[in-house]
Amino acid sequence: MSSTDPEKLRKLLAAVARKDGAAFRSLYEATSPKLFGFALRILNKRELAEEVLQESFVSIWNNAGGYQAGLAAPLTWMTTIVRNRAFDTLRRTDAVVEIDADTFDKDVMDALESTEPGPLDALQMSADAKALAQCFSRLEGLHRQAIALAFYHDLSHSEVAEQMKLPLGTVKTWVRRGLERLRTCLTRLERA
Amino acid sequence: MNIERNPELVDKLAAEYVLGTLRGGARRRFDTLQARHAVIRRAVEEWQDRLHPMAQFAPDAAPRPEVWDSISRQVGLRQAPGAGWLARLRDSLGFWRNLGMASTTLAALLVVVLLTRQFNAETPPSFVAMLADDRAQPVAVVTGNAHTHSLTVRLVAPQAVAADRSLELWAVPKQGNPHSLGLLAADGSITLALPADATPDTAPLLAVTLEPKGGSPKADGPTGPIVFKGAWVRI
Asked: Are B72 and B199 in contact (CB under 8 A)?
């Protein structure tokens, strides 16, 4: 069973809502490498990412009771907290973050580009993330990049257009179509 | 237009909302709609479930062990050096409230009546606290103004503070570490900024500690003893 198995995380979150310290520690151990990796990708500075991780887990401890199992997946809920905090920090510190187009892990990129069916399975990702990666691999490279830039760097349509040196209208269309395709693809995988 | 009855539009806006490309006024309007309509919240949650696994496309990384130490201290799973006073203070809050509620409220109201005569009538104070010492003698009156985001501390009994010490004012939240609101003058009154997280709703208690000159050297809380405290109430 993977460390980010949703059922396991759900049970841990329920225990954390009852202020179970041992469960909180297990939750931290299971999810902190992923959440920290994500915060680090957004902020590019270890101290800032650690600060965000720390604030996020304090918030998870305080708000675990408000998490409703059955709605968003546990890791989604935790990711939302980390992402919001990281973007707040980004705005607060006015940090100039080096934006590079290769936002994804190299192994993930290779897997996305690969036409072989296997490589995604080898990655340490939740089933949700594997499904999303599979759907991403079917998007055109530039559409994928436009969506990833917005997601990781808190960029607006026009900022993405500026980064990619493309007209605003093109970026808007690509993002919209990319999202539609992801949705269709994920729905199909769910049913399969 | 009732967008909640247009599932395609809701879905499209929810997707861009979660991705972050829905901006400005459109984003704020969507926030308002979310608060009103469960169907819109549901659409947002679905898109979070779809897109947030993208977070896992970044390489995993290990935070330093100090991060966990700090988290466990902040949530009270581990006692920080000097954290004992905070627990004692919170324990004493119930006692303090029961015993002192009636007289404190009366005193606070009286003080407000006296003080507001000097304030601009258009922006009366929103919050008040009477800070008292361990013998329940009133020492300072704090009034907060939510409109001007300021608070005023008026010492009613001048304090003798050693030259190498400062008095520091703290907002004590229900959970987590106290936030520093600033340093006090040894007598007279002083106006400080009132942060949004220091209202009575989030921080029901104000406390003053005796710190080294210039304030607590620790970023996450006081180091010295509490000298005065009082319930922070909305008026």
From this structure: no
